[in-house]
Every structure is written in C-alpha cells, then in structure tokens.
Amino acid sequence: MSLAVLKSRALNGMHAPQVTVEVHLANGLPAFTIVGLPETEVKESKDRVRAALQNARFEFPAKRITVNLAPADLPKESGRFDLPIALGILAASGQIPAEMLAHYEFAGELSLSGELRPIRGALAMTFAICQSSHETKQESGRKAAFILPSANADEAALVTEAAIYPADSLLQVCAHFAAIDNDSKLSRHRPSQNRKQANYPDFSEVKGQLQAKRALEVAAAGSHSVLMVGPPGTGKSMLAARFASILPTMTDQEALESAAVQSLTSGFSIEKWKVRPFRSPHHTASAVALVGGGC
Questions:
Q1: 3-184 CATH fold
Q2: What would the mean pLDDT of 230-246 be, rounded to a whole number?
Q3: Domain boundaries of the chain, sorted by first residue
Q4: 176 with 185: CB under 8 angstroms?
C-alpha cells in the first residue's frame, strides 16, 4: 500500500478543526514534500520524522514522499503533526498495519530519538474530537480515541467521553498497532480523582463597600455582567478577585470550555480545573498585551 490516511487536529483560535494527513509514496528520486499550507514548524517536521524513524530502527523509504494536510486552506502550525506523518510513512511503506489507524486520531511532536514531546492545545483538541463524534453520530457506544504524548494525558482525559491512549515514544505507538497480545497495547488513561477544591479570596473579608457588594451579589444570583468604574485604589480589583467565591461551582461544560481556552496558550494545568479564571491586567496594558491575560 503506497497511500496512508490518518486523522489529526489543528488549532484555529478556540477551535480545533480536523486535519486529514495523507501520505503517498511514489517511485522517483528521493524527496520529502509537505503541502497543505504548513507553517515553518510543520515544514521542519521532515527532519524530525526522518531522524526519529531511523533512530527507532525503522526503514526510511528512499522514495518520493508527499504529505498532504487537508483542508489545504487551513493554516497548520506547531509540531503536533510529527506523529501522524511518521505513522503515515510507516503504514504506506508496509512497516506497520494500517487497518486500525482509521479508528484513532493522533497528535505529538517527535524528538530525534523518537520520544514524544508535549503539545499545546491538547484539551481543546480532545474536546473537539468528542463534539465531532456526537455530530457525525459514529458507531453507537464508541468513544473518540486519541493517541498523544503522555505529558498531555491528564489534561486531555478531563474530557471523560474521550478514550485517551498516552505514549512515551513512536515505538510504543507502533507496538500498539502491531501487537499480537494485549501486553504491548497502549492502556487507556484514567485521570486522577484527587483534585483540590478551588480556593478563592473570601468575599466576606471585604469591609464596607455595601453598594458594590450588593451589586455583585445580585449579579452572581442572576448571572449578570458587572462593570465597575472608579479611580484607582477604590477596591475594584479587590472585589473582582473575590467575586468568584460567591459564584456557583463550575459545571463540567463550563470547566471544559474555560480549560480549552487556557490550553491554547499553554496556560492550563490540572490544578486549575474548575477554577474560575481571574485576570488583573495593568490599566496601561495594550490590546496586544491583554490577549495574554494579564497576571
């Protein structure tokens, strides 16, 4: 088989659209071409993938290799496509079986030794996989399966509907598909249930500010927005920092949406799960600086 097709995910703002990774091997002078609007990081994956395959003791085919990342009009960035590209080359050259690849989605950056390095936006990608599964109404009872680096497993497993299979290296992923017994297969990741409760500054510590506190209580009870205006030092940031302590606990859907946004900027950690985000940028911060979220 000279053609292999795998699934992965890109990042486009808050969304993670699906990307089809097509790998074709053809006769001719050896060449390695990646098409589909790849950024520089994606173009550089050619060297990472080549070295990773060779150091993992696989044969790098001396053929004309064409990798297409579809859709072609969607920009592709970062090294998350290293793993699906490497697996596509192995499947197209017949070094691993290709039958089961269609049941998974893949993401991961490869080191030159073949180890898998963490990626950005793992939670957003997993969230999008589950949404896509519901929309397309895949096989009844079948959960979305995602293979990614072990360092991203806890983050991705917060989406309980997804089946997360973490791996430490390219060899482990290949052994999963070539395994004869279950001992060589990847195990589904089970997230830890021992998470700390959110700890916010206490709203009851505020003395005075009766009108402002009353307005925040009404806003919290009715899910209203609040705009506080006043000179510096009147307590706006202090009240805002304590506002979350009187809000109800985040639902799973709210927590997933919040965590997915933080995951896009690599600002998410498991300790922030179901913790309402609070940002306090300086009043002189520019619009560009505000994108980063303040302090």
A1: Ribosomal Protein S5; domain 2 (3.30.230)
A2: 91
A3: 3-184, 203-291
A4: yes
164 phi and psi angles, rounded to 5 deg? -100, 125
Give the Å distances, CA to CA, from 287 to 190, 278, 284, 294.
Answer: 40, 17, 10, 11
- Per-residue model confidence (pLDDT) at position 246: 93
pLDDT score at 123? 86
Helices 45-55 and 82-92 cross at an angle (nearest 10°) of: 60
Which helix H or strand E contains 116, and what residues bound it?
A: strand 116-117
Q: Are strands 109-110 and 116-117 parallel, antiparallel or unpaired?
A: antiparallel
pTM to 2 decimal places: 0.79
Residue 164 has pLDDT above 60, yes or no: yes
Residue 18 tokens read as 């699906």
Residue type, 265: T
d(CA 270, CA 47): 33
Residue 31 bridge partners (DSSP): 64
Determine phi and psi for 44, rounding to 5 degrees: -70, -10
Q: CB under 8 Å to 165, separation ≥6 — which residues?
A: 104, 145, 146, 147, 148, 176, 186, 187, 188, 189
Reported as a pLDDT band with limits 50, 70 and 90, residue 33 is very high
* Low-confidence winner among 141-145, 195-199, 234-238 (lowest mean pLDDT): 141-145
Element (H, E) at 163: strand 163-167
Identity of residue 122: A
